Amino acid sequence: SSLDGKNESSEREETIKEHLQKYKEITKPELTICVIGSYSTGKSTFINALVGEELLPSKADPTTARVARIRNGQQNQISLKYNKFEFTMKWKGDTVEYNTLEGTSGIVDKLNDAITGKPGIVSQMNAVIALLNKQYEKDGQITDKVLAQIDNVIDVVFKYNNPVLGDDEFAYVIIDSPGSNSATYGEKHGKVLGDLLADQTNSLPVLIVERNNLDSKDNKEIDDMLNEIGGSIDYAHKMVVINKADDITLDTLNKQISPEIMETRRFARLFYVSSIIALGSRKNGSELMDGSYRE
Fold this sequence. Notes:
Mean pLDDT: 76
Structural class: alpha/beta
Helix content: 25-40%
Number of strands: 12
Strand order of the largest sheet: 5-4-3-8-2-9-1-10-11-12
Shape: globular
Low-confidence stretches: none
């Protein structure tokens, strides 16, 4: 019938639009922002402020070695390798779609449990990422066989709530490198990050530090890790973000940064920020999901 013909034509148009949008997104020049830092310095909150939403859980497990690679896009989705299968979870309106394959039922059940009762796309994606970052081994023993089969890199496509990073000229890719104060896991993180950045042509490192922890051993180890990765890391333009700097005067902050710290850590560019305040500004006064932000 003519009605069926119109419906098919409309569906074809939507499919073409989706393909054109995907082509536009993948052909834009990329700039990778690699966010690194020790555990609990506020990396996730900083990235949330960049994308303008509470996409990442603020209390990630410090021992996970997974890396989240976040891209701006119209289709909100999370992709990963599970049991060697390419697995994707897409949000379309009020529904969530999976490319369910043989051998993926275990992860689907866990993901469904994670998003049950979570209102809205952002809170559901936040819950999924929190699940994927959970610890799955202890003392060398696997404690969660499903999570243990997930690859080291989680790909996230999310519509940025930021007019600068969400422009049409460049594709800003944000890499959330897990933080850790453990030398053992730090080495593992470095290998995962190095493998991920190996094919990148330019990566801007952004080191997140706390104002009272500028000269820590962990920051030195992260600096050494960046040197070892080399290649794609644009070390000359490295940025150092001093987070949680909203409750102290600039004069006091400046006194904490000695010439020795600047020299030994090669802190070329320093930026004082409060990621929580920046995130609240992006949200235009809307209530934040994470209650600890309000404390």
